Amino acid sequence: MLERELKKGSAELLILSLVEPRARHGYEISKLIEQRSGGRLRFKVASLYPLLYRLEERGWIVGRWIEKPGERRRRFYRLTPGGRRMLAAQRTHWREFVDAVAQITGPEHA
Amino acid sequence: MPEWNAALAARLASLRLAPAREREIIEELSQHLDDRYEELRRDGRPHGEAVALALEEITDEGLLAREMQPLRQAATPPPIVPGAPRARWLNDLGQDVRYAARLLLQGRAWTLVVIALLALGIGANTALFSATDAMLFSSVPVKDPASLVRFHWAGRNDLVTEQDEFGFIRPAAGGQRVRGSMSYPVYQQFAANAAPFADLFALYPDGEINVVIDGQAELANGDSATGNYFSVLGVNARAGRVFTPDDDRPSSPPVAVISSRYWLSRFGNDPAVVGKTIKANDVLVTIIGVLPAGFTGVQHPVPDRMADVVFPLSLDLQLQTSTGRSEGSLLTRPTAWWLQVMGRLHPNATGAQLQAALDGPFKRTARANFDAFLKDLPDDRRNSPSYQNRTQVPQLIVDSARSGFYDADDGVRTSAMILTAVVFVVLLIVCANVANLMLSRAVGRRREISVRLSLGATRSRLVRQLLTEALLLALAGAALGIVVAVFGVGLLPAPASSASVFRGPVLLFAIAAAVVTSLLFGVVPALRATSVDVNAELKEMGRSIAGRRSVLARSLLVVQVALSLVLLVGAGLFLRTLTNLRRVDIGFDPHDILLVRLTPATSGYNQPRSVELFRTLIDRLGAIPGVRAASLSQPALLSGSTSSTGIFVEGDTNFGRTSDVGTPGNERDRSHDINRLIVWPGYFRLLGLPVVMGRDLTPHDDRSSLRVTIINETAARTFFPNENPLGKRFTTSPGGKDYIEIVGVVRDAKYSSVREPAPPTMYDSFMQNPRATAFLTLRTEGPPSAVAPAVRQTIHDTDPNLPIVSIATQVESIERRFSQERLFAQAYALFGGIALLLASVGLFGLMSYNVARRTPEMGIRMALGAQRGSVLSMVMSESMRLVAIGVAVGVAVALAASRFVSTLVYGLNATDALTMIIAVTVLSGVSALAAYLPARRASHVDPAVALRAE
Fold this sequence. Notes:
heterodimer, A: 110 residues, alpha+beta, 4 helices, 3 strands, globular, B: alpha+beta, twelve-stranded mixed beta sheet
C-alpha cells in the first residue's frame, strides 16, 4: 500500500525531472526510468501513459506530435513553466522528506 | 511488425473517448509497443514471446481504462506537423458542437419548446426587420442605384399654377417643405445642361388608365416616362423590347411596355402579347415588350403602387386629351409642375456639380415660363392681387436617389419604430423565459458539471460549452424563425407585406439576432451553472444552489411579467383608441352606405356626357330592390382624398392665394382654404345631414342657373362670424368673376380625418361642376354588400366599357383611415397575448418546480395541522408577490414609455388609468390561474407520502 503511494507520488517527480532538460517521448521516458534506476523502477504502458496524460491535463507538461523527416511522428512531452515551478517544489519536498526519513532511520549518533 | 491497434482499442472502448482523441492515444501507445517489441527482439527473444511481453505492458486487469477514466473530455493540443495550420480552436468548437447537439437531441421535448419560443421571438423580429429594411434602407431594384440622383426643390415656389405630387419628401434641414415635381420646360432645360455630368429622365405616374383588351375593360396602373427611361436605368425587356427615345416622339406610333405581373394577371403569360394592340384611355397602343419581374419602378424600394403599363411620355398628349380633360396634356402647360426628374451620374461626376450647373437654368426657366403664362392672361386676371409680386423661386436640391424618388413617410417610420419596440420586447420576454428553462436544465446537470470541473476541465471551457449549446439552440430558432418571418411579413400592411425575407441583410439579421439572443439567455445560466462548489456539490445535492437559482429565476419572471404588462397596456391603449375613433360622431350615419367609384373619363366620356351617365346610373341604381336612395359625390367623405380651394369673398379685400405651395406659416392665406365636395342633389338627405339654414341643392341648380353652394357650419363660423352667410358670394380664383352664392348651411361632417374636427367645407352642385369621375353613393336596407352584385350588373348593363374603380362600404372606407391604429392594436394585442402566455407558463413552471422541491416541507406542515387552505394561500401569495413586483415595474415602464405613443392615441391619455387597471387585472387574473394549479397540487400533498419521501 505504502509502496504504491510512494511510487505514485514519486513517479510524477521522475517524469517531470526527465522532461526538464528537453522534450522526450513516452518510450524514451520509460527507458530512462528503467536505465537510470538500474532496472529497479519500471513503468508499464498501462500506468505510464495515464500519468503522462494527467500531468498534461494539469498543465505541467505539454505533449505535441512532432514529425521528423523519414521517421514516424512521435508525441514529445516538454515541461511547461507551471510544471517547472511544480518540479522545483516537489524536489524540495522530496529532499526534505528523504532527509527526514534518513534522520529517523539512519544509524544512531552516539 | 505486429498489430496492436485492436488490442488497444478493445481496452479503451469503455471510455467512449472522442474518436480523434482515441486514435491519437492508440497511435502513441502502439508506437511504444513497437519500440518495446523491437527491443525484445534485439535482445534475441523470438517473435511470439516478444509480442506476449509487449502486450503485458497493457494487460493489467483494466488498469489502463481505469487510469484513463478522467481523460474522457480532456483537451488535446494540436499536433505539430510541418506546414500545418494551428486548429485548436476549431477542433474544440467542433467537439463542443457535437457534444451540444447530442445533449439537445437527448432532451428532445425541452429542446423543441425552446426552439419554438426562439423561433417566435427571432421570427417576429426578422419579419419586422425585413419590412423596415426594405422600406427605409434598401435601394431601388435597378443596377448601380448609388449613381442615381433625384431633383427636388425646397422653399416657396411662386412660379407654379398647378402641381402634382405623389409621395412624401422629408423636409429640408431648416424645416422647409420640399417638393419633387418639375415642369416639362424645366426638365428639358435640365436634360440639355446636365449632359456633361449625368443622363436624365422624367417620369409621370398617370394613375388609373382604362385598358380595354379584346373588348374587356379594366383599370390598370400607368406610368409615362421619357424614351431613355429604361436605358438610363439599365432595364431590358424579358420579352420583346423596351421603348427608346425614337418611340417617344409625337409622330411615333403609340407603344407601351407592360410589367411581368400584368403580363401574368391579364394575359396569362401569353408570349403573343408582344405586338398585341390594346386600347388605353381610348388610344390604340401596341405592346412592344414585357419588363423583368424584379423591376418595381424607382419611386420607392418597396412600392405601394406599381405600374402595369409604361407609356412613352409623348403619348401623354393623346392619353390625357382623350379623357376629356379640357386643359389637355400637362406637356403643353409650362407652369404645371408634374414630372419626376431623375438621372444617372456619369463616373466621377457628383450631385453637387449637377446642382451647381443646374441651379441657374432652373430658376431662369421657371421664371421665364411663368412670365410667359402671365403674358397670355387677360388683363384683369393678370392684374389681380394674387398674381402680383410672385417672384419667390425655390432652391434646387440634387441628392441621391438610391432609395427612390420619394422618402418613406413619417407614418411608416412611426409604425416601424413602434412595432420594432413591440417585437423586441417579445424577444426579451422569450430570452427571459428561455434563460429560465436553461437554468432549470442546468440544475439537472449540476453533477455532470461538478464531475467535469473536478476532473480538471476549466470553467471557461465549460462556459464555452454551455454557450455553444445556447448558440446552437438560437441558430435552430433563427432557422425556424425565418419560416415564421415569411408568414409574419404577410401579416403586415401593404406595401411592407411585399418585402422579401430572403435577402442578405435579413438573413444576416436573423443570424445576428440568434447570436445576441443566445448571449442574452445563455450567459447568466452558464456562469451560474459553472460556479458550483465542487465539493459541496459532489457530497450532496446542495439546497443552496437551488436557492440561488431560485432568486435568479424569480427575477427573470418579474422581468417577464413587467414586459408583458407593458405590451398589454399598449394593446389596451390602441384598442380603446380604435373604439374611441369608431364612436366619433362623424356627422352622419356611415352604416348601410355603399360607395362605387367610377371614372368615365377613362372610357372616353367627357364631362357633359358623364353627367348624363351619372343621372342614368343614379336612376337605375336607386331602383334596385334594397337600395333606399342613390346619389353621388366627388370625392367621397372620409375616403382619403381631399379637394380644396381658396375662397375669395365678394367685397372682402383681404385676399388669399389659391395654391398652398408657399412656405408654412402663411396663416392669412390658409384661412381662406375650404374643403370642397361636389354632390348630386339628394346627397344630404341620403347621408342624413340636416340643412340648418337656407335650402338644399336641387336638380335645377344646373349650368343654366346661377352657381350656388352650400357650406357647413364650421365654414359659416370661420368665414362669416356674426354674419348671415346666406346670399354671400365668393369666387375660387383671385380676381375671378364667376361668383358662387351661398344658399344654405348644412350640419358639420368630418371630411378626411376622423381625429380632426370638421374642416370648413363647401358642397357644390355636380351639375354645375361636372366631373368625369365620382363616387356613386347608395343608402341600402341591410348590409350594403348584399346589393353589390346587382349594382355591378346594372353598371355593366349601362355601359360594358365602364370599369368599376372600387366598390366599398362607407364603413370600410372609414376603417381604412384607422389602419395604422388598427395595426398597432393588433400587434400589441397579439404580442401582448403571447407575452402573457409566456409569462404565465414561466410562472407555472417556476411554481411547479418550487412546489415539487418543497413537497416534504408541505407534508410536514400538513402533518402538523396546517389546513389545505393555508398551504394553498401560502403558495399563491408567494406567486402573487412576484406578479405584484412585476406589475409595479411594468407600470413604471409603461408610464415612462407612454410619451412615445401619446400622439397616436385618441380620446384618452397615454397614461390612462383605466387602461392600466384593465391590463393589471387581466395580467393578475391569468397569472393567478397559472399559480393556482401548482398551489392546488401543494395543498393536496398527502403528508404520509411526502414524509416517506423524506
